[in-house]
Design brief:
By secondary structure, the chain is mainly α. The chain has 7 helices and 3 strands, in the order H-E-H-E-E-H-H-H-H-H. The protein is elongated, with a radius of gyration of 40 Å.
Amino acid sequence: APEQAARMKKLQEQEKRQKVEFRKRMEQEVSQFIQATGEPRRRFQPMNKIERSILHDVAEVAGLTSFSFGDDEDSRYVMVFKKEFAPSDEELDAYRRGEEWDPARAEERRRLRELAAQQEEAELERGPTPPGPPNDYKDKYRHLIGSDAAKAAARTMEANKAYGCVPVANKRDTRSIEEAMNEIR
């Protein structure tokens, strides 16, 4: 047990040193990024959750904006942006989808959204469409029954005049309701 505790303590100290070294390395990379004038953003290699949190902390201390992108834990990476080149919502959405940011494509999407909004406004100005089915049900079945067959069938049908009336001869029980109730009592 004491041997195992010593081993655990040694591993914890080693992890702590690795985190400190990683933080120093990230601080150096972020300072190089800040000094690079032509670079508005920098993408870092995929890293684990703890390393990403350290990098986000370093970026925040340096006054930068940082975001994590990627689906799997193994493929998540951090992008750091300078404040003057902060990303737009469309740019962030593109990175979240795993696409490369293209300003021309974003402008085209924006134009398409505006066009769709204008068309929707035009629809609203025209007013509501009258309620009802878009077509007549008879047209749907015309190929099956024809146009005159249904009319001819409707003319030949006759209503059953004795509907609901059962002749006494067809009844099984000839007792009246009162007789049946007396027997039950």
